[in-house]
Every structure is written in structure tokens, then in C-alpha cells.
Amino acid sequence: MKLSIIILNYKQLGMIKNCVKSINKLCLSFKFETIIIDNNSLDNSVEHIKENYFNIKLIESKKNLGFSGGNNLGIKEAQGEYILIINPDIILNSKSLIKLVEFMDSNPKAGIAGPKLINPDGSLQYSCSRYPNWKLPFYRRSFLRHTNHGQAWIDNYFMKDWDHNNNLKVDWLFGACLIVRKSILEKVGLLDDRFFMYMEDLDWCRRMWLKNYEVWYVAEAQIIHYHHRESADVSGLGGLFKKSGRVHLVSWLKYYIKYKGKLK
User: Fold this and answer.
1) Mind listing the domains of the chain with CATH numbers?
2) pLDDT class for 231, splitting at 50, 70, 90?
3) How far apart are CA 131 and CA 133, in angstroms?
4) 169 with 128: CB under 8 angstroms?
5) Model pTM?
């Protein structure tokens, strides 16, 4: 099997419906499978998936394992040469998926790659970044992002000095849509489930580089992402004290400790 598509669901049934609808429209020349992991949603997600999607493998977690733990359940079951991890708010299309697979086929040193993510209106989402420093939670989660220094830091972090129209090796990619070469995971490892949410994609990409595998932004593959970053919407220091902001801060501290303060 060429590809395993893994979708992690937590109370996102509406998004899951649209995501699976796009998967059912795919016209691909290679064999693929679809795996949905439900992270103990406790709504009617599981029932709906069982009743309507007979061509999809469903994995039910007994508790919410977070992004890393949930996706790892799917990765362990995946049979594909490549694994595509996507959020439920991703809309796939055949052309871009083929380009991602062809890119991985043509670039054996690539361990992980991600497409150009775009908003439904066609505008760009910044989904690849340079390695952050200790300023990340403050410039992303507080009023400091509105200062000149904060905005300059964010622009550099999101590589806004580059037009995002060409394929490029990057430090790391956001985890909303990632294609991974399964054969290298014995060397690199699965997602680190110490990170419940946030930083796990950065950590995974960093481990790819440490094992001499490349991380690529594939601009020629464009995929729609219905993205909403609610934890960064609060002004002042409120973003740091919302639950999602606190989780991000805790994950950042775990990342900092894991690499003993060596952030690059």
C-alpha cells in the first residue's frame, strides 16, 4: 500500500464529514487507506463514523491522548509506505496529494514534507517556520505580538521574507497536514506523547534533521485548511492564561527542557 491517511478527531464531527467527503472524491493511481482515531470525543462522532463510513478503519481511544498520542495509535496501524497525518479541518484534493507522494518518491532523503496550506478564500497560511527561541510564547500569546519588535520576530518566525511559491527545505512544518516516510520511524521515532498538544510537530521535524532526514515545504501542492487559532485571539496576557495558551506554554517548557535549552 502506498499511503495511509490518518485523521485525528476530537469533537469535530462536522469537520470530519467534509474531510471524508473530500477523501471519497480522490482519484489516485495508487492504493491508500483511511484511518480515523477518535480521541474519546463523547459525542456522536463514533456512532456516525461506524454507521456511514464502511471503507474507513476506526480506532477508538478510551481517553483523550492529545495530538501525539492519538496520531501514534493510527501510525502503529498504518500499512502505507507513506503516512499522511491531517487535521479534520483539511480538505484534500487528488492533484496535490499526488504531488506530495511524487515528491517523496523523488526525494529519498526527505523524511517529512508538508503542502502549501491555504485558506478557503485562497489566501496563504504560514505553515512552515524557522526554529523559535525563548520569546515564542510571549510574542505569540500576549500583547507583545503587537509591538514592533514582536511583529518583526513573528515575521521572521513565519518566514515572511520568502514568497512561499517554491519548494524549500525548512526547519519545521505545522502538523495540520504532514506526509511522513514510514520506513524511517524506527530511527526517528513516533510523535513524542509527552507533548499533549503543540510543539510535537516542531519536535518531530527537529528529530528528522538530527537523524539526517530532510524537512520540505512543497509549495506545488496546495491544500485547503479551515484553520482557526483561538488561543492567540485574546489580547493582553490573556492568551497565556486561557487553557489552550497554558497547554502551549507547558509544551514549550517541555521542549526547552528536552533539548536542554539548545533551541536551534
Assistant:
1) 3-126+164-227 (3.90.550.10), 134-161+233-264 (no CATH)
2) very low
3) 7
4) no
5) 0.91
